[in-house]
Amino acid sequence: MKKGQIQLYTGDGKGKTTAAVGLTLRAVGEGMRVLFVQFMKSVPSGEIEMLKRCGGSDVEILRNWDDSFIIGKPSAKQIAMCHDLWKRVRRKIDTFKPDILVLDEIAVAISYGLVDEDTVLEFLKNRPQSLEVVMTGRDASERLIASSTLVTEMRKIKHYYDQGVMARKGIEY
């Protein structure tokens, strides 16, 4: 049994989720099972539709968000949505038995206090040793970085969003 690694894609640049989706498609192409979890996302997106089409029974997707924005501090409802999602993740790992677990936007969920960082770190430490974990999100903490065996920072140098171009279907979502 090979030891799974802990990967983290962070930073303020574009491409964190895209990298995780690409890794997921590669893994499915090699016959692996992937549990793809999105925190704080629920809008229909091209990447989720593609994973559903290409992944078949080898990809499970979990999401639990109501499209609300966090203004100031998260609401009790927002915290409850993420706590519920984390519980579902833990149960699904036991029943689905994935080779890879993608925790998309987990770093952001932790930074907002929607998911307890100590709980995530404890999970990483005690996860099934063959489970590869891929985490994404800007504002990753030093502790999350330290717990990872691969860390890639996506750094924005220039982005058309700064000139008023909004997210585009098929490109950003």
Brief digest:
The protein is an alpha/beta fold. The chain has helices spanning about 15-30, 45-55, 75-95, 105-110, 115-125, 140-145, and strands spanning about 5-10, 35-40, 60-65, 100-105, 130-135, 150-155.
Topology of helices and strands:
Blueprint: E1 6-10, H1 16-29, E2 34-38, H2 46-55, E3 59-63, H3 76-96, E4 100-104, H4 106-111, H5 117-126, E5 132-136, H6 142-147, E6 150-153
Helix pairs in contact: 1-2
Structure overview:
The chain has 173 residues and is an alpha/beta fold. It has a single domain, classed as Rossmann fold (3-Layer(aba) Sandwich), CATH 3.40.50. The protein is built from 6 helices and 6 strands; from the N terminus they run βαβαβαβααβαβ. It has helices at 16-29, 46-55, 76-96, 106-111, 117-126, 142-147, and strands at 6-10, 34-38, 59-63, 100-104, 132-136, 150-153. It has a 6-stranded parallel beta sheet with strand order 3-2-4-5-1-6, sandwiched between helices. Helix 1 runs parallel beside helix 2 (46-55). The chain is globular, with a radius of gyration of 16 Å. It starts with 5 loop residues before the first strand and ends in a 20-residue tail after the last strand. 31% of the residues are buried.
